[in-house]
Write a structure and sequence with these properties.
Layout lengths: L1 H4 L1 H6 L2 H17 L4 H9 L4 H24 L4
C-alpha cells in the first residue's frame, strides 16, 4: 500500500516487483513472529530456540536479497 502512495519507496525497492516482495516478507514476518523458530529449526536441525528464531527471522530477508540480486543481473 505504501508503494502506491509514496513513489520514492517503490523506486527504492526496485519497482512494483520489489515492493510486492518486501510486502510479502514483512507481512509474513509480522504474521508469524511466534513461529519463526520452526522455520529456523527446519534449516539448522537444532533444538536451540534462540538460534532457530534468529535464523527464522533472517531467512525471508535472505531470500528477498537473493531474488533482488537475481532481478538486477543482466544476462547477455
Amino acid at each position: 500500500m505504501a508503494a502506491n502512495f509514496w513513489p520514492q519507496i517503490r523506486t527504492n525497492v526496485g519497482g512494483w516487483s520489489g515492493a510486492i516482495l518486501w510486502g510479502v516478507a514483512l507481512g509474513g514476518m509480522f504474521g508469524s513472529v511466534g513461529h519463526l523458530n520452526t522455520l529456523g529449526k527446519f534449516v539448522t536441525r537444532s533444538n536451540n530456540h534462540q538460534l532457530n528464531s534468529i535464523v527464522g527471522l533472517l531467512l525471508p530477508f535472505t531470500i528477498i536479497a537473493v531474488l533482488f540480486i537475481l532481478m538486477n543481473v543482466t544476462i547477455y
